[in-house]
Design a protein that fits this description.
The chain is of the alpha/beta class and 439 residues long. The protein contains 12 helices and 21 strands. The strands form 3 sheets. Strands 4, 14, 15, 16, 17, 18, 19, 20 and 21 form a 9-stranded mixed sheet that branches. Strands 5-6-7-8-9-11-12-13 form an 8-stranded parallel β-barrel, surrounded by 6 helices. Helix 5 links the parallel strand 7 and strand 8. The structure holds pyridoxal-5'-phosphate. Pfam families: Orn_Arg_deC_N, Orn_DAP_Arg_deC.
């Protein structure tokens, strides 16, 4: 059995995280419950930051916060000297509310609204990662109105295909994101921004996909983007200060996943940028990266209470839990795989096989197909591992199920980071019917 971060099994045979008994957490806070091992988030963050420091390379490690966003998570990121990627006005608002230093916030997205861009100017964020021509025109307009200058990166698609699931790949030429590096769009975008008095072009950004386990893709993309920087220096005398190589560093969900350590992911790309800089006679740019999943993914564990059980003779045994696709849509959405244990019997051998079903009204609401588990009974607590990224952040109120609570644990202490939604919360925006019934 693979345990993550500070996870251990105590003398009662219970799974503990951060020195706290998960069965006690389930009792105190209820289930479903997300438990975050904040020491592991700190360790992953430092793994990236320290590598750049040790190699003497100027860098920003920006937490791509769409993986898991809330006030406490943003404050943790600030404590660890991370920068922050936001992709919406809502994430930006949350970051500002959390007191996150605005000058280390980067704003992403392929269809930022006027209101969102205005908020970016008003809060004084570090830079906007510009995605398309419409956005360039909006930024110019807003900057002029506000007589304010904005730093930007241009997002480009280098045409490097990451080896990962098709649904979650964004680096191909056929992408909704960014300016194509190879068909003239990136050059046109460069021309539109480089001499604008309200825009300071810091450099280029690319993001080649998600859950990537090899370093070649990052190096290949870095090389291509560097070549464009070289061409712009030669033709226009433009010197890029920043090369942002995105995120997508893979993590272990099941034994099939073989992730690299943070320093391994980063070392190769740094070498490529150093080599290319020399070859192209460019000053070494700052390297920015944007890990999301790899900072929080394996630090999150979902706790559920097992309720009903069903046997389909000669087919499979089901156990049903008190959550499902409303708190983790990844298995239903793209067939994501997870492992789990019965947290109150963690020392028992895994002698049974169950399909873990959610409680939502969809046949596809299954969290794990054919999970190898300890013998399960109603009332047991199921701990599902590695749910820290794109779990809570994609949660919904489907079936009017309140979203779970989120707890942070560290050094034997625990704190609520997000309260469980109540039934009152569910109707807070609902209004009574005022239209009258016709004849
Ligand atoms: C989603 C995203 C990331 C983070 O991806 P992970 O797979 O969570 O590391 C980084 N950069 C951009 C632009 C993204 O859209």
């Amino acid at each position: 059995m693979h345990l993550y971060g500070t996870q251990q099994i105590n003398e009662l045979g219970h799974l503990t995280i951060g020195g706290v008994d998960t069965i006690e957490l389930a009792k105190q806070y209820g289930t479903p419950l997300f438990v975050y091992d904040t020491a592991l988030i700190r360790k992953r963050s430092r793994g990236f930051i320290d590598t750049f420091e040790q190699l003497g390379v100027k860098a920003q490690v920006a937490y791509a916060s769409k993986a898991f966003a809330c006030v406490a998570a943003y404050q943790l990121a600030a404590q660890e000297n991370l920068s922050l990627d936001v992709v919406s006005g809502g994430e930006l608002y949350t970051a500002i509310k959390a007191g996150f230093p605005a000058d280390r916030i980067h704003f992403h997205g392929n269809n930022k609204s006027i209101a969102e861009l205005e908020l970016a100017f008003e809060t004084g964020i570090g830079c906007i990662v510009v995605d398309n021509f419409y956005e360039i025109s909006l930024i110019k307009e807003i900057a002029q109105q506000k007589t304010q200058k904005m730093k930007i990166l241009l997002r480009v698609t280098p045409g490097v295909e990451a080896h990962t699931h098709d649904f979650i790949t964004t680096g191909q030429a056929d992408s909704k994101f960014g300016f194509d590096l190879n068909n003239g769009q990136a050059d046109e975008a460069f021309k539109q921004v480089v001499n604008d008095e309200h825009i300071e072009l810091l450099g280029l950004h690319c993001h080649i996909g998600s859950q990537i386990f090899e370093t070649e893709g990052f190096s290949l993309a870095a090389g291509k983007v560097m070549q464009k920087m070289g061409a712009w220096k030669e033709q226009h005398g433009f010197v890029a200060q920043v090369l942002n190589l995105g995120g997508g560093f893979g993590i272990r969900y099941t034994e099939e996943d073989k992730p690299l350590e943070p320093h391994e992911y980063v070392a190769d790309m740094i070498r490529t940028v150093q080599d290319e800089s020399k070859k192209l006679n460019l000053a070494m740019p700052e390297i920015w990266i944007e890990p999301g999943r790899s900072l929080v993914g394996d630090a999150g564990t979902s706790l559920y209470t097992i309720g009903s059980q069903k046997t389909v003779p000669n087919v499979r045994d089901y156990i049903a839990v008190d959550g499902g696709m409303s708190d983790n849509i990844r298995p239903a959405l793209y067939d994501a795989k997870y492992e789990a244990i019965i947290a109150n019997k963690a020392n028992d051998p895994k002698t049974s096989t169950y399909t873990v079903a959610g409680k939502l009204c969809e046949s596809g609401d299954k969290l794990i197909i054919d999970a190898s588990l300890q013998n399960a009974h109603t009332g047991d607590i199921l701990a599902m591992f590695c749910t820290g990224a794109y779990g809570y952040s994609m949660a919904s109120n489907y079936n009017r199920v309140p979203r779970p609570a989120v707890v942070f644990v560290e050094n034997g202490e625990h704190q609520l980071a997000i309260k469980r939604e109540s039934y009152e919360d569910l109707v807070v925006n609902d209004l009574p019917l005022t239209l009258t019934k016709g004849e």
